[in-house]
Amino acid sequence: SQTIHQWPATLVQPVGSPLSLECTVEGTSNPNLYWYRQAAGRGLQLLFYSIGIGQISSEVPQNLSASRPQDRQFILSSKKLLLSDSGFYLCAWSEGTGANEQYFGPGTRLTVT
Amino acid sequence: TQLLEQSPQFLSIQEGENLTVYCNSSSVFSSLQWYRQEPGEGPVLLVTVVTGGEVKKLKRLTFQFGDARKDSSLHITAAQPGDTGLYLCAGAPGNQFYFGTGTSLTVIP
């Protein structure tokens, strides 16, 4: 069966510090991978998605970036965090093009102080 | 512009009551998904509807896909406190998944 992991679970970082959130998927090959940000009690904002190693599409201009160094690893980064970067970050995977369903990781709660 | 609009945004009901949540779009989707999310956790997939007019049941939850495949509804019968959570609809025209605005449901014992 497939599983998806995210870490850390929670993170408190000062403004201007760097960020690295990691997501890994097990039990599947060549998944589509996604990073979302969610405000409290609200829907999901797609930040990045990837259909393969080194292939990243950005949906929202911001000071965040994403990388996919391996088939089942997706990393969300920032060189300098802003207060507005606080939120709940979710990683998800789906099968390739035409997939109907997404599966989510447990999320990372980021607080920028 | 939000591709999928959900209503109501917030819903607070007594245990045992029935409720319906709506997911509407001006776009046609090949399928729509419904997820439930509890605080501090990732969304969990409940169901996928694919065919226009399709109805799927998951215990006390009934999901319907509109005939034109532009909208969907989720009906909960005899709601229980365990149904409390954020309900999200989503559709994927291509590689991207578009999520609805969410409906926050609270079932009061």
Describe it for me?
With 113 residues, chain A is mostly beta strands. Chain A has strands spanning 3-7, 10-13, 19-26, 32-38, 44-52, 55-58, 64-70, 73-78, 87-94, 103-104, 108-112. Chain A starts with a strand and ends with a strand. The mean pLDDT of chain A is 92. With 109 residues, chain B is mainly beta. Chain B is built from no helices and 11 strands. In chain B, strand 4 (32-37) and strand 5 (44-49) form a beta hairpin. Chains A and B meet through strand 4, strand 5, strand 9 and strand 10 of A and strand 5, strand 9 and strand 10 of B.
Quick recap of the structure?
The complex is a heterodimer of chains A (113) and B (109). Chain A has 113 residues and is mainly β. Chain A has no helices and eleven strands.
Topology:
The complex is a heterodimer of chains A (113) and B (109).
Chain A: E1 3-7, E2 10-13, E3 19-26, E4 32-38, E5 44-52, E6 55-58, E7 64-70, E8 73-78, E9 87-94, E10 103-104, E11 108-112
Parallel strand pairs in A: 2-11
Antiparallel strand pairs in A: 1-3, 3-8, 4-5, 4-9, 5-6, 7-8, 9-10, 9-11
Chain B: E1 5-7, E2 10-14, E3 19-24, E4 32-37, E5 44-49, E6 55-58, E7 61-65, E8 71-76, E9 85-91, E10 98-99, E11 103-108
Parallel strand pairs in B: 2-11
Antiparallel strand pairs in B: 1-3, 3-8, 4-5, 4-9, 6-7, 7-8, 9-10, 9-11
Which keywords apply here?
heterodimer; A: 113 residues; mainly beta; 7-stranded mixed β-sheet; 4-stranded antiparallel β-sheet; 11 strands; 58% strand; globular; B: 109 residues; 5-stranded antiparallel β-sheet; 51% strand
- Strand-pairing-aware structural class of chain A: mainly beta
Largest sheet of chain A: 7 strands, mixed
Strand-residue proportion of chain A: over 45%
Helix-strand pattern of chain B, N to C? EEEEEEEEEEE
Spans of chain A of at least 5 consecutive residues whose pLDDT stays below 50 are: none
Helix content of chain A: under 10%
State the shape of chain A: globular
Strand segment count of chain B: 11
User: Termini of chain B, distance in Å?
Assistant: 37 Å
Structural class of chain B: mainly beta
Rg of chain B, nearest Å: 13 Å
Cα gyration radius of chain A (Å): 13 Å
Q: Report how far apart the termini of chain A are.
A: 38 Å
Overall mean pLDDT of chain B: 93
Shape of chain B: globular
Q: Hey, roughly how much beta strand do the residues of chain B contain?
A: over 45%
Most strands sheet of chain B? 6 strands, mixed
Question: Which stretches of chain B of 5+ consecutive residues score pLDDT under 50?
Answer: none
Helix content of chain B: under 10%
